[in-house]
Amino acid sequence: MGIVRETYTKCMNVKQILRTLLVKFEEKDIFMSNEYQQEIKERMQADTINIPQVFVDGQHIGDAECIERLNESGELRKMLKPYKCLESPYMCKVCGGYRLLPCPSCGGSKKSIHRNHFTAEFVALKCMNCDEVGLVKCHNC
């Protein structure tokens, strides 16, 4: 969400609305994972998607403009009332809420170094523990 300023601003506005309504939410940064990109494309059944999109219990609620309209009319508060949580929103201390960490095996380089037993050389192989950008899901989340 931090790549495009307009998208970042919309995401921050939606997050602020949800925090104001005291709702815990799970945030997925689709720019960080192809898996997340595929998931949103399948859920939305579209190739191009405006970000952010909000889902409640798997049901699509809408994009940033829709969330802002629902919030201004008071409908969003009614819709999310069952999900209200009085304790402070949880922020993972390990990943900072990003839900992804650099791979502990390769350090995010996507390369795993192995020694070739027939020669004294090392061979770089693709790391099998992380995704295409060198990240793994946070073990704490």
Give structural notes.
With 141 residues, the protein is α+β, with helices and mostly antiparallel strands. The chain has two domains: 78 residues, 3-Layer(aba) Sandwich (Glutaredoxin), CATH 3.40.30.10; 38 residues, no CATH class. It has four helices and six strands. Strands 1-2 form a two-stranded antiparallel sheet. A hairpin with a 2-residue loop joins strand 1 and strand 2. The model has no long low-confidence stretch (mean pLDDT 83). It comes from Anopheles christyi. This is Glutaredoxin domain-containing protein.
Which key phrases capture this entry?
two-stranded antiparallel sheet, Glutaredoxin, 4 helices, elongated, 2 domains, alpha+beta, 141 residues, 6 strands
Counting structural domains, the number is 2
Helix-strand makeup class: alpha+beta
- Gross morphology is elongated
- Helical segment tally? 4
- Count of β-strands: 6
CATH class of the largest domain: Alpha Beta
Estimate the strand proportion: 15-25%
Mean pLDDT: 83
Label the CATH architecture of the largest domain. Answer: 3-Layer(aba) Sandwich
Main sheet overview = 2 strands, antiparallel
The SSE order reads: HHEEHHEEEE
CATH fold name of the largest domain, please? Glutaredoxin
* CATH H-level superfamily of the largest domain: Glutaredoxin
Through-space gap between termini? 19 Å
**Uncertain residue ranges:** none
Rg estimate, integer Å: 19 Å
- The spatial strand order of the largest sheet comes to 1-2
Helical content band: 25-40%
